[in-house]
Amino acid sequence: MSVLVELTIFPTDKGESVSPYVTRVVKIINECGLECKLGPMGTCIEGEWDEIMAVVTKCYRALEVDCDRIYMLMKADCRKGAVDRLNGKVHSVESKL
Amino acid sequence: MSVLVELTIFPTDKGESVSPYVTRVVKIINECGLECKLGPMGTCIEGEWDEIMAVVTKCYRALEVDCDRIYMLMKADCRKGAVDRLNGKVHSVESKL
Amino acid sequence: MSVLVELTIFPTDKGESVSPYVTRVVKIINECGLECKLGPMGTCIEGEWDEIMAVVTKCYRALEVDCDRIYMLMKADCRKGAVDRLNGKVHSVESKL
Amino acid sequence: MSVLVELTIFPTDKGESVSPYVTRVVKIINECGLECKLGPMGTCIEGEWDEIMAVVTKCYRALEVDCDRIYMLMKADCRKGAVDRLNGKVHSVESKL
To answer: How far apart are CA B93 and CA B96, in angstroms?
Structure first.
């Protein structure tokens, strides 16, 4: 089953600007070997459930080190028999516009 | 205050594939005059609060016509004194990678 | 159409503890005249679309006054011909357990 | 670190009413041994990260069996040195109203 996840995770005890922490997380995702895409409100990752959960856990662990409060939001759209949905979902809609 | 919203809205009474309904919504957003960006898990829109809410309401009304159950998810990141965050947030992180 | 919304809204520029701001928001919701229920991760409100949106906007305006960055998350489950879903959805599941 | 999660997970290929599937998930959460609370828009669970993720995975696996498309939403509020936040967060706000 293709699992397409959008992950948003940031500390809430570090003041208004948190881009160093977001960068830390995005680096982990970029290097995880799964297809991914950075967006303005979160990073999308596509893979199998266990692969995705392993990356999400790695991101959490990386913030846990020096953050006292962390907010996380994860949206997942899981579909059997589907592939390359990171690009496919956008193309499917764009082709109908 | 710059309001950056990611909107995800779809019917849950129309079976597994809902891209015609998503397309209907994306058309409304594309034509609303605000900066926007289609992504795999939602569409980002940037503007002032009232402008954004007017578009979100328009999307809801367009589905309400023939959908009996609708699921919506809206994430908003609002920040004073910030502009062009639709591109700026991604660039800020990419420049630090 | 019954609109059941869960609203989570808080400033991210006020440090780790934000309960005074959450309290400000919950007061507005409690006094709005719609059915509502405070939970550990957000407050649920039931009503018509325009009623709900008016309350959400009031909550945003109340934080905008003295917060420089605000994060908001809104989940909505909208269903035609349904009533009292604030209690009904939980009871429906509990009766099947 | 206390991890407070709100989990919403349901199939989108089973038509308008999905309470049998939600019930299946809530049973798993109720029997997992962690503190939990059923709400109108999701179920809150409190525990350590790995415990929570194990339960979320179990819920996903239980739906994967006979669902072709699954939507999931997970919100997490993680805080060091905090306990009993399932009740504590609500009480903290209620005491200030």
So the answer is: 5
Q: Choose, out of C9, C72, C93, the residue to mutate when testing the contact with D (most D CBs < 10 Å).
A: C93
Chain A positions in Cβ-Cβ contact with residue C73 (cut-off 8 Å): 73
Whether A74 and D73 lie within 8 Å, measured CB to CB = yes
Contact B76 C80 (CB under 8 A): no
Q: Is the ipTM of this complex over 0.90?
A: yes
Counting beta carbons within 10 angstroms of the beta carbon of residue C97, is it exposed (0 to 12), middle (13 to 18) or buried (19 or more)? exposed
Residue A73 to residue D76, Cβ atoms within 8 A: yes
The 10s digit of each residue's pLDDT in B61-77 is 999 999 999 999 999 99
Q: In the structure, what pLDDT confidence band is assigned to residue D63 with cuts at 50, 70 and 90?
A: very high
pTM of the model: 0.97
Mean of per-residue pLDDT scores for chain D: 97
Chain A's closest residue to C69, CA to CA, is A16
Closest residue to B86, CB basis, from A8, A40, A97? A40
> Are B42 and B80 spatial neighbours (Cβ–Cβ below 8 Å)?
no
Per-residue tokens: A31? 């290097």
CB B44 within 8 A of CB B86: yes
| DSSP 8-state symbol, A41 | T
Contacts of C4 (CB under 8 A, 6+ apart): C44, C45, C46, C76, C77, C78, C79, C85, C86, C89, D40, D41
pLDDT average per 10 residues of sequence, chain C (97 residues): 97 94 98 97 98 98 98 98 94 94
Retrieve residue A96's tokens: 């109908």
3-state secondary structure of A34: coil
Q: Which residue blocks in chain C are alpha helix, DSSP H?
A: 19-30, 49-64, 85-94
